[in-house]
Every structure is written in structure tokens, then in C-alpha cells.
User: Fold this.
Amino acid sequence: MNKDSNSYTLIYASVMVILVAFVLAFASEALRPQQAKNEEIDKMRQILAAINIPSTNNNAEELYSQYIVNTYNVNALGEKTEGDPFSTELENELRKPEEQRYYSVYEANIEGKTKYILSLRGAGLWGALWGFVSLNEDKDTVYGIVFGHEGETPGLGAEISQNSFAQQFVNKRIFNRSGEFVSIAIVKPGKTAQGQDYVDGISGGTITSNGVDVMIKSSLKAYESFLIKK
Amino acid sequence: MGLLSSKNKSILFNPLAKENPITVQMLGVCSALAVTSKLEPSIVMAASVIAVISIANVVISLLRNTIPSRIRIIVQLVVVAALVSVINEVLKAFAYDVSKQLSVFIGLIITNCIVMGRLEAFALGNKPWPAFLDGLGNGAGYGIILIIVGFFRELLGSGTLFGYQVIPDKLYELGYENNGLMILPPMALIVVACIIWVQRARNKSLQEEK
Assistant:
């Protein structure tokens, strides 16, 4: 058979592509339930991390049901609505017109005190950023925060997922003294921000730090009406 | 022919030093810069490249007599891309934490010129077993450099190894400071250059004649 003929080349290419497509489709379908489970556990672990509860892949579900006492969606007016918050992705909601959006809220019970856990979503240098922030009962001071990223530079922007970065946010306030929403600023180490609480950014990770700053501001802004309701 | 005849041995071990893909052949330097600011991703990347390059080499070697020469690059690309995607799916299902870490690097493997280079230069003309050894050797030669660079960059740039602090606090009190430049990509080039310098100084056969 002539390997250089057009028909051989065409048939070879088609067969190869179809075979590869089948292999990929099969791998993707066969592994999907396991992957979905992993993603769910990962989300639970992040929510737990936002209230400073360390967890492992094995005990995440147990701890989640132990600490998270109530979950619901709120709309742009801050009213509770129907829907499953666990499957509500802030990323998708932010694309909708404001009146159709739903924001997920998780209530945790830590030593008898209620903590509100809210979703964060934004963009860094290379890809998406996300996170969960937990606020104390006053819906103002931060109790804990956790950040995740799709692919920030290791050693630079990726440092936002380190605990040492997240711990800076604890007890910072997102409202100023006159009760206006101001968010928490991320500044270059050594600099300060006027009229709002601030934390140090990552040296060498300026774009990621700015991304976190914008993410916290825009995500919490979406929850503003819920946060104002006492 | 034994499993490791002298020819196969040189196929396996030459890429570690004398024909090292990064320091001698200057392939795959770009990904070596991107992932080596910490030791751990360097090791994970090294392992993934070794896996992908050896399996791809075997697959291409098995297919070598059927591949039409006009579309051979595309065939190689499809094989590598398919392999990387399957590995990515498997990692997501069974090693979720590792896959989260790897997310960006997975894509980098497809574009790694070492993989394509070995497929084109070796697997297309050799039997599966030597092709496998060639993949293993070149992957390891790449990995060694990555790990050496990652080691120095994390140690001098952050004062840690695998995220644990190894430089004692006393030293910091004496005025020692982490070199922030080490974390930035240009320093990877300089560290690679230092490795090349040492290697050439010790190995006369690598030096160009004047």
C-alpha cells in the first residue's frame, strides 16, 4: 500500500481522530462521577478553611455537616430565596442581569456564634481566582478567608493560597466607621490605604494581588444589601 | 540482546549528562523557567514529563511503520495531546490535589519541545523498547535539571525547601535576607547557565574547538 497517497493519508487521519475522540470521551465519561465527587469535597474543604477548620479529603463531609448549619441563596435585594447554594456558582451569577442573580450564603455555627460564609470570584494574572470569606455575626469583621487560583505563578501570585496571606485578613472590617461598604484593600508591603482596612500584597505578585483586591470588592459588593440587613 | 545492552544503556543514560536535553541540546528551557521557583512543582513536572515522553515514544514507535510522512507531526501532536488529556482526567479523578497543582503545567507538557523532539528524532526510527528507554532518559535528564534549579531557587529565594523553612532564624537575625530575585524567571536562566558552565568545564568533549 502506498503510504504517501492522498487517500491513505486522509483515511489514516480520520481513523486516528475518531479513535482518539472515543478514548477521550470514554475517559471523560467514566471518570466524571469520581471527579464530581472530588470537586464537591474540595469545595467543602474550602468552605471549612474559610472558618479556619482544617480538613482532609476523608473527614471533609463529616466536618461540613457538623459546622455548616444553614445554607441558602440570597437575591440582589438581600432576601432569602429558593435554590441550592452549593450548586450556585458566583462566576455564572455575575454574568446575569443583577435582578436575576442569586448569591450563595453558608451559615456556620462556631461555639454558638453564627458565621456567614460568602463566595468570592475574580481574575488574577493567568486565570480565575476564587475564595470564600467568613464574616462574624456583625456581618462586618472578617473571621476567616481562603483563596484558590487556577494557575497563578508558583512562588509569586500563587502565594495567595498560603495561610500566612489569608491570616492577615482576620478581624479586618469591610465597612468604614460611617457604615459605608469599602472592602479591604491589598496594598504594596509598606504602603497604607486611606479610609479602609488594608493588608500587605505579595511582592512580585502585583497583578495577582490587585486581582484579589478587585475580587473582594466586587464580590462583597454583590452581597451588600444582604450584609446591610442586620 | 539483553534488556540493557550497551547501546540501550547509552540511550538511557546519555541524556542525563552528555546529551542533556536542557543544558546541551537547549530544548525545553521555557518550561524549565516557568515551574522551578519551588522544588515541589519542579518534581511533579519532572515526573509528568517522564511519564508522557516515555509513553508517547512507545506509541509513536509502535505506529512508526504506518504513519504517513506528510502528516507525521500532526500524528505526534495528537498522540501527545491525547495522552496528556487522559492523564489529566485520571489525575482529576484519583489524585485531585496533585491535579490542582499541575493545572497549568499540564498544558506546558504538550508544548514541551523535548517531547516532540524525541518523537521526531528517535521514536519514528526505532523499536518500542529503545524508544521507551530514550523517553525515560530524556525525561530524567530534563527532570534532573528542573530539580536542581528548583532546589536552588527555593532555597535562596524563599529560604525553604518543600515549603519548610530550612534557613535558621539566627541567620536572619545576623542580617541575612532571602534573595527575591531568585523567585523571578530570569534567575532560572542564570542558574541553568551556571549548571552548563560547571558541566562544560568538567566535560572537555562539550567544548567547541577554536
In short: Residues 76 and 98 of chain A are 6 Å apart (CA to CA). The two ends of chain A are 80 Å apart (CA to CA). Strands of chain A lie at 68-75, 80-81, 102-110, 113-123, 128-135, 142-149, 185-187, 198-200. Chain A has a mean pLDDT of 88.
